[in-house]
Amino acid sequence: MKKILLIISIFTAFVSQAQSSKWSDLFSYNNVLAIREDGDRLIAATENGVFYYNPSSGEIKKLSKANGLHEVKISAFDYDATTQTGIVGYQNGSMDVITPNGIFLIVDIPLATGYNGSKKINHISMNGDRAIISVGYGVSIFNVSRREFGDTAFSKYKDPITNQDRTDVVYSAVIKDNIVYAATSSGVKYHEINATFALYSEWNFPSNIIESGEFTKIDIGNTIVYAKKIITKAATQTTPEEFYYEVKYKSGNSFNTINRQFVNVQDLKITDNQIIISDKTDVYIYGINGVQQRVLNIGENINTAFVYNNQVFTGTKLSGIYNEQKNSLKPDGPYNNASYKMSLLNNQIWVSTGGRESYNNPANRGLGYYHYDGSKWIYPDYFKSNPNFNILDVVPNPSNPSEIFFTNFVFSGQKGIYKMTNNEFSKSYLTGSPAVVYDRPIGLIYDDQNRLFCSVMTLNGGNGTVGYYLYNATSDNFSLKPILNIGGAQKPIAKNGVLYIGAPFPSDGGVLMYDYNNTPDNTSDDKVKVLKTTNNLPSNGVVSLSVDNNEDLWIGSREGLRILSNPKSAILEDNPQADEIIIEQNGLAEELFRNANILQIATDTGNQKWVSVDGGGVFYMSSNGDRTIYQFTRANSPLPNDSVTDIQIDNKTGKVYFATLDGIMVYQGDVAEVTSTFGNVLVYPNPVVYAQYKGNVRIRGLASKTNIRITDAAGNLVHSAVANGGYFEWNLANQRGVRVASGIYYVLMTNEDGTDTATAKIAVVN
């Protein structure tokens, strides 16, 4: 019989100002795109955030989607120290305007009719109260104080020679004396800001073209400087394009070329007396007369450079800001933002960066894994010299966290299982044998007896058979245990002597439940059951699994969610049946998460569930799924991406870690180490001032089952409830459903058997 769960009320909790402090990011701040000055400090824009560096104190502060910005994937930035205003441009075409009075999201960039190309903001240049915004389709004027767009010149025009329609890519643009100068894919062009500014055909008058060709960078000060790409050999199917750059500057009424062929100009800046050229791995500084003053070899790829107090600060791609001593200046964070799976242990974090397309083809990001050792992030040197890794999973040995195992999922060559000791290469297993697409390890898990299992798919000669590798610590080797053909494999989970492996392939995908009877070396007493559509699973493959605190198996498929009660016993049944979660909305019964791709399921110590839906963000569910407590998406929360590939919970702190391909975000959850007795009971927000906060009051640190009575100062009962899962929310209503008056309210709490009690006070100001 199916479980019918009636939802009394389902609500989505949008992130409020009171919740914002509950978020923090684990972003990479290595790739510095731009550096600007703000009085006694520098501001640097990176892929996913901005950070502030004070050279005199060494203080570093960061700003990201976790504490104010509205997006990730920054592509352009500029800052005006006079007004203390910055503009952040994103790859999706939106902008953030950072002011002393707040951060404002701008999404109404005007688009040309019928334009379907990239909206990425290529460049921003501020001058007083105006900013010039360069995008692939043209150049726009933005009024900074009013935070609104003026004229936009769409860069589509008729080629005067071929009479064909063309569209310039505007790489960068600047403004001076009411004239906008643009570096485009067909030339350096300019136009006065007047009634015909938006007519791009006028930009192509010969009198408005300084020079034809492909120009990528431009800046202006006392003079104008720009970089031109010179192609020396066109690309073919087998050979890349060959090119160099020349940099020109205006002297008097003519333009001169700096006497050097630059490798690949990344940025140009001009000050009152200097031209600063960032060229792949070198910074060149010239006087405005074109005479070279300094050359700095940075030793790695760079994006930009900035001179502050006569010192050169360089924005690198991999190491944050470098000063002239090549000290790396940045907030601590992982090597890169790409994240796939995580492991947590004793305040340490390990992050894999690989992936699979259609659950089969390697993503081949070539990054390896990152490791947070409790005080700093580490990127093993091994991966810097060995970039051919597509790591799906990385786990530490619980009894010896310095020993790390990871899986490399590729079709041939270096595929296999690897061991690192103290982040140094130790040993590889099963690599390259055979050098075809068989025997590909997927995910790793230690069971409660500290035995290491690794799921494996497509065994050699097994017609797609799935099984597992078992690690023998004494011989330091893995042995293969084939099982069945079930349609691929996901990362396994293990509980109470049972190994569970999801099979994500369509049609034949299901769940392998393998009872190894706590003797994985002895297969004679093992029992196996495969759940498929005949067991009421959806037909399109299983992606995620979780065994909760009630010993129920939660099954996330590519087409929905199922629950199997007491799965260990179900292995012995002939035809066990999984159940949908049926909810009732507006009088109609509906299956929860019907047709949704469930990427990940995690259970906290209070038995609540975090569920990640591909493209739908994450849901925080009650223990039986009948109520949505929160839904977080990239639109209503700091999540950088709506497809969360992994969720890990630190049960000691209650922190919830969300991994996405655009970075890791952390949420301070309400549930931590729930037991039959009370922990550290915390009420928040407290006091509750209606003018500042209109949500529910939360109480955390409760027993697994808590009887709650709330009274006013005179002892009159105001509200009573039973809370499960270690926390409780009160909507500040009395027994009649009316909001309580201003005053002090007392919370009297006992655990289930009355052996432990706790009290709290709540101040309410209406």
TrEMBL record:
SUPFAM superfamilies: NHL repeat. Residues 44-203 form the PorZ N-terminal beta-propeller domain. It comes from the Bacteria. The keyword Signal applies. Keywords: Signal. InterPro entries: PorZ_N (IPR048954), WD40/YVTN_repeat-like_dom_sf (IPR015943). Residues 1-18 form the signal peptide. This is PorZ N-terminal beta-propeller domain-containing protein. It comes from Epilithonimonas xixisoli.
